[in-house]
Amino acid sequence: MSQSKVKKFEIKQFFRILLIVILFILVTTASTLGFLINKGKRSAIGENEIQIIDEIPEGYQIDSETGEDAYFVYHNGKKYKYNDKVTTILFAGIDKHSDEHIEGVYGTGGQADTILVMSLNTETGKYRLFAVSRDTMAQVNVFDKTGDYKGTKEQQICLSYAYFDGGVQSVENLKRSVSRLFFGMPVNAYAAIDLDAIPILNDQVGGVTVTVPEDLSARDPSLTLGTTLTLDGKQAETFVRARDVKGDENQNNLRMERQKVYLTSFIKQTLQKTKEKKTFPLQMYKSISDYLETDIDVSMLTYYTSIFLKSGFSSEDNMVKVPGTTVAGEKYAEYYTDTDAFFDMILNIYYTEVE
What domains are there in the chain, each with its CATH number? Predict the structure, then answer.
């Protein structure tokens, strides 16, 4: 592919995952609120059963006690019980704009270039929003072009989406890889958004104001280091997608930091718009519905909304990167998770110490 095509199609689609995050803050009408919250609560948690896997750090033991619907971790003489009230929501930004993508054809589904995973305690409202590098090396289910399963392979997690046709099956395959990465935690809901929604979302909030954290003037003269400006749709694409594919292995890490800057500002500006017009999030949803693949229905959305209305929402304080290290692979950058550090984070979020 030529360099111009790479630049055109490398748009990295943080915006695609933003809509559902913002919709969590929507205030629904009083007449249906109670019913939707109760129904959504049942749907949001669903079959919240952990899949026990072997790849946990040395010194930990994880199992299920006979006759109990509970899972436990044992470490340093302490016992931790799995909290099935914590629900996991996957947000993915999908890049389908490539020469390889053919709508409806297996094996050409595109790539999950932006991956966010929200771990939400439905009782306390506390949450952690994990940014997962697209370069994360993970166990991926591999399929041929007819859809036949060919086993698993360690490769970049972004590729797990590509093995189907870009629809529900692609998302399901991404969910499998994410669940494995998160030590068997179930993924209860998802939203995958196509990159074409980027300028629509940005411009509907009147542009997003950011302070540029690194020099991007080679891409856009206005995006110089330290400059504060309100991005239009085209500038926003550049701000969150820019990555030197011929640069070093840390290019995606730099981009993820910019995406966090953008997300924090986007949410603040959308909240202000929503205060001025309560139906604003619905307006946004309608504008990009053709670019959205999700299993989050109205009742689930209302339930999530009720939680955040009580507890608040601050991506700046609660968004973290899955810990790990980037190395230069044979062809592409490879991100290897720090298993010990990440499992400690999972233990603190998904488990509760018991006597």
Answer: 3-354 (3.40.630.190)
